[in-house]
Amino acid sequence: MGYLVSIIVFQTLFTLMLIMVTRQKTTGVFEKLLTMLLLLMSVHFSIKLIFLLTNPDYFTLPSSFSLVYGPVVYLLTISTTKTLKRSTIITHFLPFIIMSVAYVFVLIQLHAFPLKNNLSLPLYNKIAFLDLVSIATYNGLSLVLLRKNKLNIDPLKFKLLKSIALLFISMVLLPLFFILLEPLGIFLDTRIVYIFILVIVVCIAIYKVKVKELKAEPHTTTSPQEKTQKYNSSNLSETDLNAYQTQLERYFNTNKPYLEPELTLQILSIRSGIPKHHITQVLNTRFHKNFYQFVNEFRVREVISKMSKHKNVSLVDLAYQCGFNSKSTFNNYFKKITGFTPSEYKKQHDLAT
User: Fold this and answer.
1) pLDDT of 164 over the 80 cut
2) How far apart, in whole angstroms, are the C-alpha atoms of residue 120 and residue 12?
3) The CATH homologous superfamily of the domain defined by 224-352
4) Within 216-237, where are the H helices?
5) Could you please report the per-residue DSSP string of 153-181?
6) Residue 215 and residue 52: Cα distance in Å, rounded?
7) Is 256 left (phi over 0), alpha (psi -120 to 50) or beta?
8) Is the pTM of this model over 0.85?
9) Which H or E run contains 3?
């Protein structure tokens, strides 16, 4: 058991390090909650490992952490389509906070008053079984929300959340199934439960790697003429191209999707209702730009429009507010589009006004 818990702790810390290394200055609620989930897991199983090595009796004591996993997954799911209020997060975390106080109280009692364990320990053990209800309920609700909002959720996030929810539900249902088999002499190896946790952590690590790959901007030296010639055999008519161009421009001007640092071609396709390959064709043949050039041009325009209104805000902070996720990308695109560095442009603008 010890080696399995050690692997979970190591994998969790490794994935946390991966998130911290790849995170941008502007991090959305989804990424913050995902980091919180990993942090809670690392603390949970670090405590378990310490108890396993020092006092096995404490290791078997149910902890409060199982009451927080369900709410975090549920809040992660909500954050993909809605803005979360701090009060909402705190409300869902209340059972975990209360149970954490009880957990510390029981640990103190076990250590300081070993002869009085029968006073609160039986009650605590009964209440601790609520974690099974919490995990099953919250993850079940998450699956319902995912199914309902599938078309509005980033496919990578959808796949990750669905996998996590199914794994947590399986982790709860499997022990219940084996309880029914106990009269037949078939018992559950508790290590299976820890394997589920390990798989969840691995799923998060895979998600972060895929996100990093998608954010890597492709380099292209294709000329506008070559881009246009590539679509000579396309079945898309000029009328359709015009319609898609109008729809894309209207969507960008109205919804401003470029303000999201995590915007990808896949997300844009889902939300705008335009197939990915048609978006690419419109961008290449009508705007002579790739996806990132098109999006970042809107971001630069947004920064310029905010300069005069927010004179006390730094240019880098404005860039992050407008969807850029790195200072270097912002500087490069700004100079390509305006011919000036951001500071040069601002200086001239200030002089002109």
Assistant:
1) yes
2) 32
3) Homeodomain-like (1.10.10.60)
4) 224-229
5) S-HHHHHHHHHHHHHHHHHHHHHHHHHHH
6) 41
7) left
8) no
9) helix 2-22
